[in-house]
Amino acid sequence: FFIFSEMHGISFRVQIIVKELLDTDVVLKLLFHLPVNYPSTLPDISVNSDQLTRAQCMNVKDKLLEQAKKHLSEPMVHDLILWIQQHLKDVIKQSATVCNEKTTLSKGTSTEDGIWMLLLHLDHMRAKAKYVKTVEKWAADLRLTGRLMFMGKIILILLQGDRSSIKEYLILQKTSKVDVDSSRKKCKEKMMSVLCETEVQSQHKRFQTFKVKEYSTLEELQKEFETAGLTTLFSEFVPPLLK
């Protein structure tokens, strides 16, 4: 880790790796700022990770500060690092639960952003079974409904839900190691395109669940869109993918 001094205290940058969490190694980047009167005063803590969402990083920070209060007036940085290495998995699980509870509480009472819809195009899936399982888990965790659709070489993900959950999904899709490269090493999704991100209109029907479906013809796929009141969405974005 790196140490640098400041006029108002000392800052530590610490990078730790927690093995095989979320089907991948999680690299946690922690910044501790120790004020001049540390340890009588709590340190400032900043948490970042490419594998975790912003909400999960905030939850890790909150838990670290909770632990720090238990060590007030005694050196604590080393203890906090050991603690988060041992408890990161539980903290992330709690983060998902809290997120779901907040979604439930705000459902119907908050029209902050309305219901949004996202249409993604994926170029390929080398590790298809694992990839599909990951997408299903994310959709369930974020309370998103819709379809993961396969038709020939076309792969589409159509999602509906709270705008904040849609944005959270996009972060996960872009930053997590969801597939494998040609050498079968885990890799991030680099060939995804956002075809459409828009608010759900009155003529659009809401999907009640998230399903994975395969279609043998373009007509079958078109019918799925038409049933959901998304004929325009289909005609604008899907046929060009066949060219």
TrEMBL record:
Coiled coil: none annotated. GO terms for cellular component: cytoplasm; nucleus. GO terms for biological process: cellular response to stress; positive regulation of hypoxia-inducible factor-1alpha signaling pathway; positive regulation of protein sumoylation; regulation of gene expression. PROSITE patterns: RWD (PS50908). Pfam families: Prp3_C, RWD. It comes from the Eukaryota. Keywords: Cytoplasm, Nucleus. It is found in: Cytoplasm; Nucleus. The keyword Cell membrane does not apply. The keyword Phosphoprotein does not apply. Residues 1-91 form the RWD domain. Enhancer of SUMO conjugation. Increases SUMO conjugation to proteins by promoting the: binding of E1 and E2 enzymes, thioester linkage between SUMO and ube2i/ubc9 and transfer of SUMO to specific target proteins which include hif1a, pias, nfkbia, nr3c1 and top1. Has no effect on ubiquitination. This is RWD domain-containing protein 3. It comes from Formicarius rufipectus.
